[in-house]
Specification:
By secondary structure, the chain is of the alpha+beta class. The protein is 26% helix and 27% strand. Strands 1, 2, 3, 5 and 8 form a 5-stranded mixed beta sheet that branches. The protein has a 3-stranded mixed beta sheet with strand order 4-10-9, covered by helices on one side. The chain has a two-stranded antiparallel ribbon with strand order 6-7. The radius of gyration is 29 Å and the shape is elongated. It starts with 5 loop residues before the first helix and ends in an 11-residue tail after the last helix. Bound molecules: dinuclear copper ion (CUA). The site of dinuclear copper ion has 9 residues, from loops.
C-alpha cells in the first residue's frame, strides 16, 4: 500500500492534474479581472472627482469669531432675507450648539451657515438630508428644504470628546405662515426659552 496522495484520491493520473491546473487558472483569471475592475474604478473615480471643483471653501478665524463678524452671539439664529430665503447661523462648541433650539420654516429653502469654535463637530437633523461636519476655521454651508412641520432632534455626530453623546439641539419646523409672521420683525429667531 502506497501513501494516499491527492492525485490518487481525485482519480489518479496526469488527467486530474490538468483539470486542477485549468481550474486554478480559471480562478486566477476571474480574480485578476475583479482586481483590474476595482483598480480601474479607483483610477477613474479618483481622476474624475479630483477634476470636480471642490465646494466653496470659506475660512474664519476661530480666535475672533465670538467678538466680531457673522458668528457673534446676537447674530446667531434664523433670519429671513429680502430674497425670501431663510438663513440659520449657528456655532458648535464642546458640548453644545448655539442656539440650542433652532426655528425653521417648512417649504422655504433654508441655508445653514455654521462653524465650530474648538473640536470637530457635526450634526444631522432628524431623518432629513441636513447633515454636515463642522470644522474649526471653516464655515460649513448647505441649503435644504424641510417638508414636514414638527420638532426634530439634531445630535452632534462627530466624536468630539467626553461630552459628545450629550451634545444635541432641537429643530422646530414651523408652517411657513407662522414662521413668516414671527420673522417679520427682522430679528434672529430661535426657540430657546428666554
Ligand atoms: Cu460635538 Cu460630538
Amino acid at each position: 500500500m502506497s501513501a494516499v496522495t491527492p492525485t490518487t484520491v481525485a482519480g489518479g493520473g496526469p488527467h486530474s492534474e490538468t483539470v486542477a491546473v485549468a481550474a486554478e487558472r480559471r480562478w486566477a483569471i476571474i480574480v485578476g479581472v475583479i482586481i483590474a475592475f476595482l483598480v480601474a474604478m479607483m483610477i477613474i473615480t479618483g481622476l474624475h472627482w479630483a477634476a470636480m471643483p471642490p465646494s466653496r471653501v470659506e475660512t474664519i478665524d476661530v480666535k475672533t469669531l465670538h467678538i466680531k463678524g457673522e458668528f457673534i452671539e446676537s447674530n446667531l439664529g434664523t433670519t429671513i432675507g429680502v430674497d425670501g430665503k431663510a438663513t440659520v447661523r449657528l456655532v458648535a462648541q464642546q458640548y453644545s450648539f448655539v442656539p440650542q433650539c433652532i426655528v425653521v420654516p417648512a417649504e422655504i429653502p433654508v441655508t445653514f451657515r455654521a462653524t465650530s469654535t474648538d473640536a470637530i463637530h457635526g450634526f444631522v437633523i432628524g431623518t432629513t438630508n441636513a447633515n454636515t461636519m463642522l470644522i474649526p476655521g471653516f464655515v460649513a454651508t448647505f441649503t435644504t428644504t424641510f417638508h414636514k412641520t414638527g420638532e426634530l432632534l439634531m445630535p452632534c455626530h462627530e466624536y468630539c470628546g467626553t461630552g459628545h453623546e450629550a451634545m444635541w439641539a432641537r429643530v422646530q419646523v414651523l408652517p411657513p405662515e407662522e414662521f413668516l409672521a414671527k420673522a417679520r420683525g427682522g430679528e434672529r429667531l430661535s426657540c430657546v426659552p428666554r
